[in-house]
Design goal:
There is one protein chain. The chain folds into two domains: 42 residues, no CATH class; 183 residues, 2-Layer Sandwich (Alpha-Beta Plaits). The protein contains seven helices and seven strands. The mean pLDDT is 84. Strand 6, helix 6 and strand 7 form a beta-alpha-beta unit. The protein starts with a helix and ends in a 6-residue tail after the last helix. The strands form two sheets. A five-stranded mixed beta sheet has the order 2-3-1-6-7, sandwiched between helices. The chain is of the alpha+beta class. 51% of the residues lie in helices and 20% in strands. Helix 1 runs antiparallel to helix 2 and helix 4 packs across helix 5. InterPro entries: Biofilm_reg_signaling (IPR052155), GGDEF_dom (IPR000160), Nucleotide_cyclase (IPR029787), Rev_trsase/Diguanyl_cyclase (IPR043128).
C-alpha cells in the first residue's frame, strides 16, 4: 500500500510536468485537475476518513520513512484504547460514537503535532502515536494525553445534545526506528496497554523488558488488527 501511494504521487508529478513542459496552456486545467484527483486518492489511501488521522497504511508510511533516515533513532510508540467506548456507542448510537471519536482524535492530534509526532487510528477506538524521544518527558506526556481524552465531550442525540466522557488506557514503548513496527513497536505498546486496562484503565503503563500479556481471561478477545494480521497473505 505504501508503494501505491508513491506510485500515485509519482504519476501525478509526471503528468503535471509533461503538460507544463509541452506548454499546452489549454491542457493545464485538465492536468491540474488530474493531479489534484491523484493527490486526493493518495491522501485517502493513507488517512482514516472519519477522523482525518493516518490509517494503518499511513502509519506504515510514516514508520518506513523514519526507518529510512540516516542512523537509527529512539522513538516513543503509544497505543491508546478507549475505556467504555462501547457503552457510548450502545447508548447514543454510532453517530454519537463517531462524534466522540472525532473529538478524541482532534485532542490526540493537537498534542502529538506540538511534540513533533504523528497519530493514527488503527480501527474502532484504537489509536497509535509515534513521537521522537528527544527531550520528551514521556510519563508527563502520556498523562497529558490521558487527561485530554478524559475531558467531557458533547454529542448530539435524538433528545438533544448530551455530555459524555470516556477514559483511555495507554501502553507506551520506547523502541528504535529500525525495529519492526508490528512485531516490536506495536506488540510492546499493546502488551503495556493491556496492563493499563487490566489495572483499571484511565492511565498509562510503560513496557518493561520481559513484560507479557495479562491473563487472557481479562482480554476482550482478538483485536481486529490481530485478525487481519493472521489472515493468509496479509503482512504487517
Amino acid at each position: 500500500m505504501f508503494i501505491t501511494i508513491l506510485v500515485i504521487a509519482t504519476i501525478a508529478a509526471a503528468i503535471l510536468s509533461i503538460g507544463v513542459g509541452l506548454g499546452r496552456l489549454a491542457a493545464r486545467p485538465a492536468l491540474n485537475r488530474t493531479y489534484r484527483e491523484l493527490a486526493d486518492a493518495a491522501w485517502q489511501l493513507a488517512h482514516d476518513p472519519l477522523t482525518g488521522l493516518f490509517n494503518r497504511t499511513g502509519l506504515h508510511a510514516v514508520y518506513t520513512g523514519l526507518a529510512a533516515a540516516p542512523g537509527p533513532q529512539p522513538l516513543i510508540v503509544m497505543l491508546l484504547d478507549l475505556d467504555g467506548f462501547k457503552a457510548v456507542n450502545d447508548t447514543y448510537g454510532h453517530d454519537g460514537g463517531d462524534t466522540l471519536l472525532m473529538e478524541v482524535a482532534d485532542r490526540i492530534s493537537s498534542i502529538t503535532e506540538i511534540n513533533g509526532g504523528a497519530a493514527a487510528r488503527l480501527s474502532g477506538d484504537e489509536f497509535v502515536i509515534i513521537l521522537p524521544v528527544r527531550d520528551q518527558q514521556i510519563a508527563s506526556l502520556a498523562d497529558t494525553i490521558v487527561s485530554a481524552v478524559g475531558r467531557p465531550v458533547q454529542v448530539d442525540t435524538d433528545n438533544g445534545p448530551v455530555t459524555t466522557a470516556v477514559t483511555a488506557s495507554i501502553g507506551v514503548a520506547v523502541i528504535e526506528s529500525t525495529d519492526h513496527l508490528q512485531d516490536v513497536a506495536l506488540h510492546r505498546a499493546d502488551t503495556a496497554m493491556y496492563h493499563a486496562k487490566h489495572q483499571g484503565g484511565n492511565q498509562h503503563i510503560t513496557y518493561a523488558p520481559g513484560m507479557t500479556m495479562p491473563d487472557r481471561q481479562h482480554r476482550r478477545g482478538p483485536r481486529p488488527r490481530d485478525l487481519r494480521h493472521n489472515r493468509p497473505g496479509v503482512t504487517a
